[in-house]
Design brief:
By secondary structure, the protein is of the alpha/beta class. The protein has three domains: 9-73 and 125-199, Rossmann fold; 82-114, no CATH class; 205-297. The protein has helices at residues 9-18, 25-37, 51-61, 77-80, 86-98, 104-111, 121-124, 146-158, 189-192, 205-215, 221-234, 246-258, 266-276, 280-286, 289-304; strands at 41-44, 66-70, 82-84, 117-119, 135-139, 160-163, 167-170, 176-181, 196-199. The chain has a five-stranded parallel beta sheet. Strands 3-4 form a two-stranded antiparallel sheet. Strands 6-7 form a two-stranded antiparallel ribbon. Helix 10 crosses helix 11 (221-234), helix 10 (205-215) packs across helix 12 (246-258) and helix 12 packs across helix 13.
Length: 305
Amino acid sequence: MPNALPKSIDAVQDMLKAASYVADRSLATVLFLALKMGRPLFLEGEAGVGKTEIAKVLAEQLNRPLIRLQCYEGLDVSSAVYEWDYARQMIEIRLAEATETADKDRLGSDIFSEKFLIKRPLLRALEATVSGAPVLLIDELDRTDEPFEAYLLEVLSDFQVTIPEFGTIKAAEPPIVIITSNRTREIHDALKRRCLYHWVDYPDAEREKEIIALKLPGANARLSEQIVLFVQELRKDPNLFKLPGIAESLDWTSALTELDVISLDPDVINDTLGVLLKYQDDILKIQGSEAAEIIKKINKEIEAQ
């Protein structure tokens, strides 16, 4: 059975924190409203700030199935919503012809029945389960083309899908919908109007320390503080091609812990920057003297505390 929806903003924060997700008050508020009002939640932000994780946490904490539609360029209805099992339909037609029982009207309705319907994520999300309506994650919507985005309007407006040969399938209980975008392109206003909106930003230093402490409780405290301050400094650099997100901070902390590092120094940073930064130009910019200057600065901050 599904767990009850949280009854307050504080309850949302507690629910997320129970799954080691540290949310600020504004995110907890918009998530509470989305659940209360039954509206899709549209999350934008840089890659690696925890947008996708929200859907996973919701499914886990509410004890509901998670259905994920990973978007990509060229995504179409047959991959996202439904398609017919043409091979089985042809076998059915051949069998009917072989037994000379082919009634065109009956056969036509039979081969377009539910048993030949292959249900993709959006269609499966409209089906209730023993655990209640699922959590539908439409991940990285900005990667798709505008025609597919337009198709989503019917799904998000009425929580239904129309199949020409079959009819309209409507959700008895609307799914909980989380849509994410890395903002590589703008999403059309018509779709945004159907959603509640929130920009998921990089966490501040205190929240990032709390996240690392929850996710990686075995990490050295001084190392974690150095990592957070180092990453916070990198995010101030407007010339980096891709700023590190919280996902990269966690990866770097985990990697350095595996290497039994207890304190950052320029050599360690130079050797492991590929865990934190994903573009060679960014790595070359930070390696060497730049890394040494940053670590010198943050050590002074720590000593002054």
